[in-house]
Amino acid sequence: MIDLTRNLISREISNIFDNLHYKDINIDVNIPTQKGKGNLTTNVALVTFKDFQESVKNNLLDDNLINEIDYIKTPFDYADWLANKIRVRLLDVEYNSTKIFKNIEAATPGFINFYFTDEFLISKVNYLALNKLDLRLGESKKYVVEYSSPNIAKPFTIGHFRTTIIGNSIANLLETTGNEVYRDNHLGDWGTQFGKLIYAIKTWGNEDEIDKSERPVKDLVDLYIKFHDEVKENPDIEDEGRKWFALLESDDDEAKRLWKKCIDWSWKEFNEIYDKLDVHFTENNGRGYGESFFVPMVPDILEELEKNNLITESEGAKLVFFYDDDELPPLMIIKSDGSTLYSTRDLATDKFRLKKYGNDVTIINEVGGDQKLYFRQIFRIEEILGWYKPEQRLHIWHGLIRLKDGKMSTRRGNVVWLEDVLNETFKRTKEISSDLPDKDVWKIAIGALKWNDFKRKRQVDITFDWNEILNIKGNSGPYMQYTYVRGLGILNNAKSHFNLSENDIKKIEDVGLIELSEIEKELIHKLINYKGVIKEATNDFDLTIIATYLYELAQMFNKFYVEQKIIDDNIDLEIVKFRLNIILSVNKVIKNGLEILGIKVVDKM
Ligand code: ARG
Q1: Are 364 and 149 in contact (CB under 8 A)?
Q2: Alpha-carbon Rg for the chain in angstroms
């Protein structure tokens, strides 16, 4: 419906422009976010004032126009003249026998603002209440969204938290807006560390105990740390680690067996985290393609790189130099001992994706900002090889989470495990909502964690702080969930008080009885803007835009709730129903927005 009104306006303006002999003007009609600028606004008068002066100067205008425009000296005069012309045409236009525009007027320095009639605003709310939200944005594209990508036998830390929730929500957003989305998890399940780990398990570990352990990854990490402690005393065991990795590479049964166990142990723990976070993947039976999957494809990649003269050998290692880009340092592709690297496996991954999803696919890697340079190197190689155009490869990065006392390090045992964070959040949430079932406490706890991330731009670095990450006051996940619960409460009370079904509520019969208050107009205007906000968020892959919008909506709703009577026998039932339609719509939007952010609503709080 909003597009209908926009089209109406731009068609009208473009007719006028034809008579003024302008060429190729892009007519933007927007939903203003500031108060007092109408329900729609356009800056075309500002944009075309020069064209207008040109047309006058070059005598392009008809005689009857010349007299009309005589008084125009400033962009505002010009906007005013345009507004008058548009007004004559549009003020009487109706949609479903409802007049659309109450007023169309110029505003300084040269905007034209459009105000909807109360009837039209009411019909919009009613439409929202009645219909499923349709947030498809027209053009549908194919995306692989890769996120989380933790490393096997390494802690799933608070560091991987951001990629996990941001990536998952970006995938949600792209899906909601009508795209074809594949969700991948690039598990770090290959590398020389597995040689060390296998040696450590065989030397100091106990497989049965790890099998039974609640925290198998923690046991593996302890073994890994032990290995590095021992190396200080006895450097020779580095060779043992190397030997085991060589065995793993040559498909040795015992090495393979233990490596596979490491993956299963880790996956068990990761899966619990994904369940709690309500994060999932679609590829490779829901596990994602780990790095190891791509190792057999490496020779092929090497051949292609060599054929394209991209490989330079140096001291036994193979590197790619970027001669046409001074900013990019060389990237190592094969180590001097012949083994593959993170980079080699990434190239193989992206070649595989090209074949699997088609060469029109766009690939998003949601990975921390510390890998920015690395991804530029990878993308550049893929562009040189003609695999992808630059706009098909996106590194969507986020700022890092730092500890107060520096960087996290697995080897030094200086990490914050995500599991501990989740459990602590649950515990603290339970303390203040002990009467709720655990499954709802989890929804609130996870909502608090995620919201605290989404409410600030993903590019910002975060210093880890319990109070900050668990904030449940003010602009917080629980505040949003509580607003929703409040809305549900009013709806339920009203239904029983007035003996109305949900369908009765949605049947508004006499619009004439309803007069809108300021807060109602504001709230409806905000609701109408939801799809625009989703579009903006999608263009920038920016979830904070959604969180900010939802928070403002909730604040408006709470103001509405305080100011307007709803369950009151002294007001007309039509008005009650209309206000309930507002609540239905607000709740629909809040629920939908939170769903995109991966946050669930609850019925009680
Ligand atoms: N496993 C890596 C890490 O923990 C992240 C992988 C990111 N994805 C990629 N395609 N390189 O840092």
Answers
A1: no
A2: 30
Q: Is 164 in the pocket of ligand 1 (CB under 6 A)?
A: no
Model confidence at 160: pLDDT above 90: yes
Q: How far from chain centre, in Å, is Cα 214? A: 33
- Is residue 438 located within the same domain as residue 580? yes
What pTM value is reported for the model? 0.94
Q: Of the residues 76, 97, 116, which one is the last residue of a structural domain?
A: 116
Q: What is the pLDDT of residues 468-480, one digit of tens each?
A: 777 777 899 999 9
CA distance 266 to 386: 37
Give the whole-angstrom CA distance, residue 474 versus residue 305.
54
> Angle of helix 477-498 relative to helix 543-563, nearest 10 degrees?
40
Q: Are residues 152 and 192 in the same domain?
A: yes
Per the CB < 8 A criterion, the answer to whether 190 and 293 are in contact is: no
Please state the rounded mean pLDDT for residues 114-136.
96
CATH number for the domain that contains residue 102? 3.30.1360
CA distance 140 to 344: 31
Ligand 1 pocket: which of 194, 349, 367 to mutate (most atoms within 8 A of CB) = 367
Same domain, 62 and 171: no
Q: Is 151 in the pocket of ligand 1 (CB under 6 A)?
A: yes
Residues 403-445 have pLDDT tens digits of: 777 777 766 677 889 999 999 999 999 998 889 999 999 999 9
Going along 283-421, which residue ranges are E strands? Answer: 311-314, 317-320, 331-334, 362-366, 393-396, 401-402
Q: Using CA positions, which residue lies closest to atom 4 of ligand 1?
A: 150
**If you measure from the C-alpha of residue 164 to the centroid of ligand 1, how many angstroms do you get, rounded to a whole number?**
11
Establish whether residue 367 lines the binding site of ligand 1, counting it when its CB lies within 6 angstroms of any ligand atom.
Answer: yes
Question: Are residue 395 and residue 427 in the same domain, yes or no?
Answer: no
Distance CA(409)–CA(415), nearest Å, equals 6
Based on the fold, state whether residues 231 and 377 are members of the same structural domain: yes
Q: Within a domain: residue 310?
A: no
How long, in residues, is the chain?
A: 605
Give pLDDT, residue 1. Answer: 57
For residue 403, the model assigns a pLDDT of: 79
Q: What is the three-state SS of 524-546?
A: HHHHHCHHHHHHHHHHHCCHHHH
188 lines ligand 1 (CB under 6 A): yes
Residue 183 pLDDT greater than 60, yes or no: yes
Q: Summarize pLDDT for 37-50 with one digit per residue, the tens.
A: 999 999 999 999 99
Cα torsion 267, 273, 274, 279: sign:
negative
107: pLDDT strictly greater than 80: yes
Domain that holds residue 547: 417-605
Neighbours of 316 (CB within 10 A): 10
Q: For the segment 580-592, what is each residue's pLDDT rounded down to a tens digit?
A: 999 999 999 999 9
Whole-angstrom distance, CA of residue 186 vs CA of residue 183: 10
Q: Give residue for tokens 């807060």.
A: 519
